[in-house]
Structure formats: C-alpha cells, structure tokens
C-alpha cells in the first residue's frame, strides 16, 4: 500500500489539472501561434510559467486504484500487476485465468 500522502497529493494534482486546463490550453495556443508577434508569444509563455506547476498534466502519476502502487500500472484496467494477479487468483476478473506451473 502506498503512502496516503502520495495518493492525496496525486488527487490534488488531478483537480488542479482540471481547474487550469482551459487557461493552459489557451495560453499554449497563443504561445505556439506563428502569426502573432514575438512579444505576444513571449508574454503568453511568461503567463504560462506563472501557473502552478502541479496544474500541468505531465505531473500526474498513474496509480493503482486499489493499492496506490505507482509502478507496473495497467492503463486499460487502472490497477497494478500485483492487484491484477490477486484478483485473477480469486477469479474476480472475467476471462482472466492465472496460470502457475
């Protein structure tokens, strides 16, 4: 089980990303628009830098929904390999048969 503080911090990051997504998208569009002057583009980059760091989507860490484990994460299922193996052994995932030899 992951530390509760890490799981909560990641939840806060997800909320910040949702909150700032429209503003960040607009500023990025302005900063990357070749038709605008360099001053306007640079000003957009400065405003983008003033936004909170945790409002960037790249700072979100995929974590297992059950355990909070950050590694060996299956995106399709939203859980880690350890949780997948456990649920597969119990027969709780339809169509999954855990093999052991």
UniProtKB/TrEMBL annotation:
- Show the Pfam families listed in the entry: Ribosomal_S14
Q: MF terms per GO, please?
A: rRNA binding; structural constituent of ribosome
Family statement drawn from the similarity comment of this UniProt entry: Belongs to the universal ribosomal protein uS14 family.
Keywords from UniProt, A to Z, are:
Ribonucleoprotein, Ribosomal protein, RNA-binding, rRNA-binding
What the protein does comes down to:
Binds 16S rRNA, required for the assembly of 30S particles and may also be responsible for determining the conformation of the 16S rRNA at the A site.
Protein name, UniProt field: Small ribosomal subunit protein uS14
PANTHER family in the cross-refs: 30S RIBOSOMAL PROTEIN S14, SMALL RIBOSOMAL SUBUNIT PROTEIN US14M
Looking up Gene3D superfamilies in the UniProt record yields: 1.10.287.1480
User: What are the annotated GO cellular component locations?
Assistant: cytoplasm; small ribosomal subunit
Q: How does it assemble?
A: Part of the 30S ribosomal subunit. Contacts proteins S3 and S10.
Q: Is rRNA-binding there in the keyword field?
A: yes
PROSITE patterns to which the protein is assigned, alphabetical: RIBOSOMAL_S14
Q: Which GO terms describe its biological process?
A: translation
Where is the signal peptide, in residue numbers? none
Q: Which HAMAP family match?
A: Ribosomal_uS14_1
Q: Which domain of life is it from?
A: Bacteria
